[in-house]
Design goal:
Layout lengths: L5 H17 L1 H5 L7 H22 L3 H5 L5 H25 L4 H22 L6 H21 L4 H18 L5 H22 L10 H8 L1 H16 L4 H7 L2 H13 L6 H35 L9
Helix pairs in contact: 1-11, 1-13, 3-5, 3-9, 3-11, 5-6, 5-8, 5-9, 6-7, 6-8, 6-13, 6-14, 7-14, 12-14
């Protein structure tokens, strides 16, 4: 019997998380014909009891609740909740309205958008590979603007909302599952009120199958997040960043092969430009990770470096 080590276990968990996220459109499409806004409310509402259950099992509920007294932290969590609700809503709308290809492009754009967010909000400097990567992303967006006569709203909105969410979450001293608990704690009352005035948002109106997918939305939201958190604690972030591309690649596969959405030559060219940009940014990230690893090795006891 082969025993896998901690990093291999982390890799498997990360792959599982990104595959679930990548094929998520197949889950959400089963909620049709429920309005995407109602599905969003169900997702926010039913995620709360699921996260409470997981925190209780992990015996972290009491320590998590202690964060409520920290006003600044709670304000940031409320802002993060707003960003993630926008992201969820746009994605749900896109995959149920034949726009899954555009949603995939949004997540391919995410690493490049993160570079820009670092520049604007954290005053990070861009090195040459990052500038080249961002340049290719701008070229891809410009190509679509010329072709469509406007910005690729779905792609940009998904990338920006999730990028801003990630930037805000960096400043919040709670992990992902705790963050999801607080985010849904803010969203759940609004979701409950929305569903009440919307005659429970399709629940009970379209048969048992649709009801089960709506009620299971909280579990479907929490499980990949928990797998991702467990993976991030077991493997280097550089490796985790490479596995990230499984998600949007799977989304693109679902859009083109399973949903049979068309891709015109302009869309293909835009994807190609983004992919070239990602090559530069990813290669630069790996170079930085290797350099940090060498510095850490030299600084460790018994290392050959001068730093101590």
């Amino acid at each position: 019997m082969t025993v896998i080590n901690d990093q291999q276990r982390g890799t498997l968990l990360a792959i599982a998380a990104y595959l679930i996220w990548g094929f998520a459109a197949l889950y959400w499409i089963e909620t049709r014909p429920v309005d995407a806004r109602d599905v969003l409310a169900h997702r926010a509402l039913w995620s709360l009891p699921v996260t409470v259950l997981f925190l209780a099992i992990a015996r972290r509920l009491r320590s998590t609740l202690a964060v409520i007294g920290q006003g600044k932290v709670m304000a940031l969590i409320a802002l993060a909740a707003a960003c993630i609700s926008v992201n969820w809503g746009i994605f749900l709308w896109a995959v149920t309205h034949g726009r899954a290809t555009e949603a995939s492009l949004g997540y391919f754009l995410l690493p490049l958008v993160n570079v820009l967010i670092g520049l604007v909000f954290f005053r990070e400097s861009l090195d040459r590979p990052q500038k080249i990567g961002v340049g290719f992303a701008i070229a891809a967006i410009s190509l679509q603007v010329i072709n469509q006569g406007g910005l690729p709203a779905v792609s940009l909105s998904l990338a920006l909302s999730f990028g801003l969410y990630g930037a805000i979450r960096k400043a919040i001293p709670v992990d992902s599952i705790e963050g999801l608990f607080f985010e849904t704690l803010f969203l759940a009352p609004l979701a409950l009120a929305w569903l009440y005035f919307r005659d429970w948002g399709g629940l009970g109106a379209y048969g048992l199958r649709v009801d089960l997918f709506l009620l299971g939305s909280g579990l479907f939201t929490a499980v990949p997040l928990i797998a991702y958190v467990a993976a991030s604690r077991r493997m280097p972030l550089s490796a985790l960043g490479l596995i990230f591309y499984i998600g949007p690649t799977a989304q693109l596969f679902v859009a083109l092969v399973l949903f049979r959405e068309p891709m015109d030559p302009i869309q293909l060219a835009a994807f190609a430009l983004v992919w070239v940009g990602l090559v530069f940014v990813t290669a630069d990230s790996l170079r930085r990770a290797r350099r940090l690893a060498r510095i850490a090795a030299g600084a460790s006891p018994g290392g050959t470096g001068e730093a101590r």
